[in-house]
Amino acid sequence: MRGIEHIPWLYDALMSAMDVTGFSRWRRKLVGTVENRILEVGCGTGRNLPLYPPGSEVVALDPDFAALRRARRRSPGTLLVVARAEAMPFPADHFQTVVSGLVFCSVQDPAAGLAEIGRVLHPEGQLRMIEHVRHSHPTLARIQDGVQPMWTWVTGGCHPNRDTEAAVERAGFRIDPEDRVARGVMRRFSARLVKPRDPTR
Fold it and tell me: Could you tell me if residue 198 is inside a domain?
């Protein structure tokens, strides 16, 4: 489905407007203290890529080849991969940090995408996310439900009513309450995989 998210210059214009209103600070917080061997899922046009600490080993993934062409101009040295979050071409336990910014509202199968993150993330690694989520107020959440079909069509895939935080926890992650920021429907947080219990104990 094509929409705003799939027109790189238009998407960049909208993100620039968000950055002016303070979103750029969230971006810098998202990637400023990451550990090495980093995967960015859904990098889009690469707005986060110049913000990583110098010397970071970053691999950036997105299903949209046109967006990755613009990402290449922003970060010529970054390895860019055309792939979906639900099917990542990487070995298990490979990355120390996985970053995702405004992505899982548009992933076709969020549970499968989060399962893939859990697979490629090192057991001691960290997931760092910025997402918008389902509103906590029931009336406003119902409004999100009402506008969702048209909004998804216009944007090319964004679902404003997804509760991505809850989906992250269902996928086996524990969100760090000390590293969680909430502003309206926006969330920035980090999470780690919950260690599975040893069935022999």
Answer: no
Instruction: Show pLDDT as tens, one digit a residue, over the chain (201 residues).
Output: 456 777 888 888 888 888 888 888 998 999 988 878 999 999 999 999 999 998 899 999 999 999 999 999 999 999 999 999 999 999 999 999 999 999 999 999 999 999 999 999 999 999 999 999 999 899 998 998 899 989 888 888 889 999 999 999 999 999 999 999 999 999 999 999 997 544 443
Residue 201 included in any domain: no
Q: Domain for residue 200, yes or no?
A: no
- Determine the Cα–Cα distance for residues 49 and 61; give it in Å rounded to an integer: 11
pTM of model > 0.85: yes
